[in-house]
C-alpha cells in the first residue's frame, strides 16, 4: 500500500508554535513516528509539508499519477479556506482521511468549516500525533490490497 501524508502551513513549526495547543514534539518527531509505523506495517509512505497552497494541490494531483492508494491530509489553516485543496482531493478521487492535531471542534468559530474534509471519508481530531497513526491504520485495514 502506498500512502501520501500531506501537511499544510506552519506544521513545520511544531514544537515551537503554541505549545499549549500543539505540544513540544517537533515536525521531525512526527515524521519519524509516521515512518516507523509505516515501516512496521509495510506501508510505502511519502510525507510532504508546505506552507504554500499551490504546492499542496500539486502534490495531491501527483499522488494520482504516482499510483498512490490513499491520502492522509492535515491541511492546517487551509482546512477552513481552500476550495482548491477540496477540488484537488475530489479530482484525484483517492480514499482520504483528514487529521488535525488539536480538537478543532472546540476552537474558534472559523475553524468549524472544513473544505478538505468534504472530500475525506473520515476526520480525526484532537488526538495529536496519534491521529496520523489512527488514519494510517484505518486506510490500511480498509484498502490494503
Q: Helical stretch count? A: 5
Gyration radius from CA atoms, angstroms: 14 Å
CATH class: Alpha Beta
Give the ordered list of helices and strands: EHHEHEHEEH
Number of strands: 5
Q: Which structural class is indicated by helix and strand composition?
A: alpha/beta
**Overall structural domain count:** 1
Overall average residue pLDDT: 92
Please give the alpha-carbon distance between the first and last residues: 7 Å
CATH third-tier fold name: Rossmann fold
Second-tier CATH architecture: 3-Layer(aba) Sandwich
**Strands ordered across the widest β-sheet:** 2-1-3-4-5
Task: Report on the architecture of this protein.
Catalyzes a trans-dehydration via an enolate intermediate. One of its GO terms (molecular function) is 3-dehydroquinate dehydratase activity. Belongs to the type-II 3-dehydroquinase family. Pathway: Metabolic intermediate biosynthesis; chorismate biosynthesis; chorismate from D-erythrose 4-phosphate and phosphoenolpyruvate: step 3/7. The protein has five helices and five strands, in the order E-H-H-E-H-E-H-E-E-H. It has a five-stranded parallel sheet, with helices on both faces. The protein starts with a strand and ends with a helix. Strand 3, helix 4 and strand 4 form a beta-alpha-beta unit. The protein is an alpha/beta fold and 145 residues long. Helix 3 runs parallel beside helix 4.
Amino acid at each position: 500500500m502506498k500512502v501520501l501524508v500531506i501537511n499544510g502551513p506552519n506544521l513545520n513549526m511544531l514544537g515551537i508554535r503554541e505549545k499549549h495547543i500543539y505540544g513540544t514534539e517537533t515536525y521531525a518527531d512526527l515524521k519519524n513516528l509516521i515512518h516507523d509505523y509505516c515501516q512496521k506495517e509495510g506501508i510505502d509512505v511519502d510525507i510532504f509539508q508546505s506552507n504554500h497552497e499551490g504546492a499542496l494541490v500539486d502534490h495531491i494531483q501527483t499522488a494520482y499519477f504516482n499510483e498512490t492508494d490513499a491520502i492522509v491530509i492535515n491541511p492546517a489553516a487551509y482546512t477552513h479556506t481552500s476550495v482548491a485543496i477540496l477540488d484537488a482531493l475530489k479530482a484525484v478521487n483517492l480514499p482520504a482521511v483528514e487529521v488535525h492535531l488539536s480538537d478543532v471542534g472546540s476552537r474558534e468559530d472559523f475553524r468549524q468549516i472544513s473544505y478538505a474534509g468534504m472530500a475525506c471519508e473520515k476526520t480525526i481530531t484532537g488526538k495529536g500525533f496519534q491521529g496520523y497513526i489512527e488514519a494510517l491504520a484505518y486506510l490500511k485495514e480498509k484498502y490494503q490490497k
